[in-house]
Inverse folding.
């Protein structure tokens, strides 16, 4: 063990030590030494050759989001690294633990506009939690250990390591016995007891409390604690887009998604509540609408591992900095016995009935099934069939792209466990679905992974269909919700710009034929009666399948809270504008 | 918008200043001045930042997101010693020379260079005094001026020794999530 290793070998060993098993990348000149060394470790470290570094980055994200482990992506210097910027920005916005390993030109060429030289450390400073340039082979063991630590602890995030070619080639005896030295990085996991007690008091005495659960609950593996907490206090639970899966949607206390495309009764409940317990969510503008009008009657408790999120958008009465799981455990300890809570439970009974009554008045999924004779294949039919089939067969995970289809996937499908709904939220990156689904499928070979995309997003990154075949991945089904538009933009143009469809009508290939060209099974669906058959055929096929659902072109996502409006003022039809 | 003086302790790693300034720029805060240099503890630097903002707590909180940032304090309302240095090249003629020199003496400023039609004066003092000096000297004609930006230190036992933070973290390992 005290023999000399090359920098590239050290990189491989460092990754293996940290439990990395898969990497997604594309080789190139500057990073060749890493690929040379990778070959020796290929039984422990699987490399997936992607068709675009962006695809590799999103695949690493899908892998990370569906497992909680770090996702690793690789690019060579220059354009290889700039192609990683989008997935890094995406991971930054959604707090995904990601490691990007990039090749850099020889140290003596730095700053001289060498072939494929780019200052990727400079470019990615705003979109990474931290990044490094390594020029010295001796630094590699420490940098890899620190980088992975930073990416996976506290509020997770993407970290980039840029390594010069000479550092990869040089040899040294690696020192694995390195202690991390991070005086400026000390995340707080245990919440302040006094604040926790105050929060418990507030919730026990609340008349109309609500829980908002976000990504932090899932990342902290706190779903069981959340469930116990909600049940003990009988408090209704709202899940944000990224919180979907943190609380089972068939639970009597689950009421749905809030915000711009959340159900009316959920937003109304928020506007009426008197205590709002927000855990692991960051009060994003898509949830709050016009912030000054958000939850006007509520005292807010905000539990977050990142102190800079507390008070950033919404004023908070009880701030609790800490890890969701640990804070919930402490809260559970502060709760009185079941007998003392019986009065609370009866109070909650009437609050919950009130919410359910609002729910029945403001229809939820049903509004999508109002039959219009002129509509041939409403998108809702597709989702209804998918929902039915997924519920029957179980063992599924849904990855979506960005746009109208994404909102429908959140509203109309069903999620019961964490890490089964994976989407690009904060950044809203089109092209996320297909590569991310690949990452999820590799991480979970036992599940059926549905990638639901629009025809626009699909065309951005679909070349990873070739990767999927090369890697022998079979458990992926792609559903293209094909309406010939950049749908969400078209909706805004219809509602706010007098139907000026500038730049939104979109043509594409015959998606099923394209799939066949990639050696997939391709199915085209144009009529409602063919929807279920196509889905069944997809399940019956032992291999990846793409279904082109040619849906009604101009359908809108409802409800909608227009940008800058109060969430209490959602509209459910064009006529309400 | 109010001006705030912020003192930060940062780990002295390559790129830390770029990250620090980048974050402030990204959040749209206007930097009036920035001074950075080594502190009393090896590998730790101190930054004094003067920024105009109505949301200074957000600046401070967001700076903590940077891995190398150890401590950030808004010392605007604390009892501090604040100093700034300025070098001014003043237009001077044989007739105005003595006036300039006597003005400089009032401010404890030093003449560090003299030429036929200009002189360079070096002045150090509290920010208010520096402003004063510049105003007073301006009528003579300022050819060139270079200011260092303010540095600040909290008076007395309060404030923060860099070594406290480095010691506290030695042997500390933040526990992983799962």
């Amino acid at each position: 063990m005290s023999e000399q290793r090359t920098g590239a070998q050290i990189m491989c060993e460092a990754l293996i030590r940290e439990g990395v098993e898969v990497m997604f990348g594309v080789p190139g000149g500057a990073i060749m030494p890493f690929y040379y060394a990778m070959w020796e470790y290929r039984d422990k470290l699987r490399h997936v050759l992607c068709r675009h570094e962006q695809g590799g980055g999103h695949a690493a994200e899908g892998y990370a989001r569906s497992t909680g482990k770090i996702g690793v992506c690789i690019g060579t210097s220059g354009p290889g690294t700039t192609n990683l910027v989008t997935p890094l920005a995406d991971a930054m916005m959604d707090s995904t633990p990601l490691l990007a390993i990039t090749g850099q030109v020889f140290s003596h060429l730095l700053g001289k506009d060498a072939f494929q030289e780019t200052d990727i450390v400079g470019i990615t400073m705003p979109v990474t939690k931290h990044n490094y340039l390594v020029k010295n082979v001796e630094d590699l063991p420490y940098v890899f250990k620190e980088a992975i630590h930073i990416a996976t602890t506290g509020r997770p995030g993407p970290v980039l390591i840029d390594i010069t070619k000479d550092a990869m080639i040089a040899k040294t005896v690696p020192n694995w016995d390195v202690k991390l030295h991070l005086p400026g990085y000390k995340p707080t996991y245990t919440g302040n007891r006094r604040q926790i007690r105050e929060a418990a008091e507030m919730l026990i005495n609340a008349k109309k409390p609500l829980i908002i659960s976000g990504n932090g609950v899932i990342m902290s593996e706190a779903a069981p604690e959340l469930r116990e907490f909600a049940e003990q206090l009988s408090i209704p639970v709202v899940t944000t887009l990224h919180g979907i899966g943190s609380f089972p949607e068939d639970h009597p206390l689950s009421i749905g998604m809030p915000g711009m495309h959340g159900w009316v009764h959920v937003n109304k409940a928020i506007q009426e509540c008197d205590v709002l317990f927000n855990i692991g969510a960051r009060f994003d503008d898509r949830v709050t609408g016009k912030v000054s009008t958000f939850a006007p009657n509520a005292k807010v408790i905000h539990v977050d591992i990142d102190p800079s999120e507390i008070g950033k958008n919404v004023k908070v009465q009880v701030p609790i900095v800490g890890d969701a799981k640990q804070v919930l455990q402490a809260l559970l300890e502060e709760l009185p016995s079941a007998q003392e809570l019986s009065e609370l439970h009866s109070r909650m009974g009437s609050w919950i009935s009130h919410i359910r009554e609002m729910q029945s008045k403001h229809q939820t999924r049903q509004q999508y099934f109002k039959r219009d004779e002129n509509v041939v294949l409403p998108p809702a039919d597709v989702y209804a069939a998918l929902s039915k089939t997924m519920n029957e067969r179980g063992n599924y995970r849904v990855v979506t792209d960005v746009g109208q289809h994404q909102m429908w996937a959140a509203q109309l499908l069903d999620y019961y466990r964490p890490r089964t709904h994976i989407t690009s939220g904060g950044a809203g990156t089109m092209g996320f679905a297909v590569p991310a689904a690949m990452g999820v499928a590799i991480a979970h070979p036992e599940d059926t992974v549905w990638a639901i995309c629009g025809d626009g997003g699909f065309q951005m990154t679909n070349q990873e269909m070739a990767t999927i075949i090369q890697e022998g991945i079979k458990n992926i089904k792609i559903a293209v919700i094909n309406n010939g538009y950049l749908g969400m933009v078209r909706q805004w143009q219809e509602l706010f710009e007098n139907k000026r469809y500038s730049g939104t009508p979109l043509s594409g290939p015959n998606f099923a034929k394209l799939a066949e060209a990639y050696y997939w099974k391709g199915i085209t669906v144009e009529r409602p009666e063919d929807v279920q058959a196509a889905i069944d055929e997809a399940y019956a096929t032992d291999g990846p399948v793409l279904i082109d659902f040619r849906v009604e072109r101009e359908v809108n996502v409802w409800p909608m809270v227009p940008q800058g409006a109060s969430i209490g003022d959602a509209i459910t039809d064009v006529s309400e504008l | 918008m109010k001006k705030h003086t912020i003192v930060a302790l940062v780990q002295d790693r390559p790129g830390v200043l770029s990250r620090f300034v980048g974050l402030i720029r990204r959040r749209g805060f206007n930097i009036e001045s920035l001074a950075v240099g080594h502190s009393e503890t090896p590998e730790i630097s101190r930054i004094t930042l003067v920024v105009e903002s109505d949301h200074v707590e957000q600046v401070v909180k967001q700076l903590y997101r940077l891995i190398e940032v150890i401590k950030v304090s808004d010392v605007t309302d604390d009892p501090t010693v604040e100093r700034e240095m300025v070098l001014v090249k003043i237009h001077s003629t044989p007739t105005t020379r003595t006036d300039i020199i006597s003005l400089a003496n009032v401010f404890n400023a030093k003449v560090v260079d003299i030429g036929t039609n200009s002189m360079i004066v070096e002045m150090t003092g509290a920010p208010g005094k520096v402003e004063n000096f510049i105003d007073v000297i301006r009528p003579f004609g300022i050819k060139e001026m270079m200011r260092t930006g303010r540095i600040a230190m909290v008076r007395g036992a309060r404030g923060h020794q860099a070594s406290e933070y480095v010691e506290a973290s030695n042997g500390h390992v933040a526990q992983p999530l799962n």
About this structure: The first helix of chain B runs from residue 16 to 26. DSSP finds five helices and nine strands in chain B. The interface with chain A takes residues 10-11, 14-15, 18-19, 22-23, 26, 44, 57-58, 61-62, 64-70, 165-166, 168-178 of chain B (CB under 8 Å).
